[in-house]
Amino acid sequence: MSIHSTASVDSKATLGQDVDVGPFAVIEAGVHIGDRCVIGPHAVIRRYTTMGAGCRVHPGACIGDDPQDLGFKGGESFVRIGANCVMREGVTIHRGSKEGTETVMGDGCFLMANSHLAHNVKMGNNVILANGVLLAGYVEVGDRVFISGNAAVHQFARVGTLAMVGGLGAISKDVPPYCTTRNSRQNCVAGLNVVGMRRAGFNPADRLAVRQAFKLLYRSGLNVSQAVERLRSEFPEGPVRVLWEFVEASKRGICPYGGGDEEESGD
Question: How many domains does the chain have?
């Protein structure tokens, strides 16, 4: 373990093996840091934060601070971060707004500079947030999502697994799994994240099924409820089930199709 002489590490914090704490970093009481984590200069890890092994926190990041919520009354709430995550310069992650609640980030996530997770965010595994991404309170993000630079996601909205949100986008409805949204457009699905599906190991048959489901959902003339019933009947299992279960569970409504033919690209 290496702790710089200028760092402030509370005696009631728990640090795993081979943790490196840089100059002027602050780690408060009750924090749990996993093995082989690196806490950079001037980073702040506040109480009630748990971080898995192999994480890197870059200079100026602040993890576990109080939520920016006027209804916050204090008390114990939490930030829980998985293993092998990277939080670059200026990243902020806030703990849950109500006592006993938490903000959760899965394993293998990469948060670029100045991105923000508000209170009670639930984020899956292997998510990438580009510079300046803002996730509001109670946002849910599925596995392997990519959210491009300076995009913002409204409170309570959801982004489904393997979706890709365009830069400068404003999302206030749910983005279905596997879909992409256009840059600088609000709530506008453009097509499918074909590259992401390939990288995730989807075989040609699964990718074809998702393309067929996309057309049925967005280009068949059916309303959402009718489309879900068709999808449930025609694709009871596999990746399309993830899609129709996500849509069926939507409370804010899903992003509409904005035109174009991007869903036709790839295989």
Answer: 2
β-pairing, 2-3 vs 179-181, is unpaired
Model pLDDT for residues 169-227, shown as the tens digit of each residue = 999 999 999 999 988 778 999 999 999 999 999 999 999 999 999 999 999 999 999 99
> 266 or 185, which is more confident?
185
For the purposes of burial, counting CB atoms within 10 Å of the CB of 74, is it exposed (0-12), middle (13-18) or buried (19 or more)? exposed
Question: Would you call 113 helix, strand, or coil by DSSP?
Answer: coil
Q: How many Å apart are CA 214 and CA 47, to the nearest integer?
A: 44
* The pLDDT of residue 184: 78
Q: What is the CATH number of the domain that holds 7?
A: 2.160.10.10
CA distance 241 to 218: 16
- Same domain for 132 and 26? yes
pLDDT tens digits, 123-182:
999 999 999 999 999 999 999 999 999 999 999 999 999 999 999 999 999 999 999 998
CATH number at residue 226: 1.20.1180.10
Alpha carbons within 13 A on the beta-carbon side of 34: 15
The edge-to-edge listing of strands for the beta sheet with 20-21 is 2-3, 20-21, 38-39, 56-57, 86-87, 110-111, 128-129, 146-147, 164-165, 179-181, 189-192
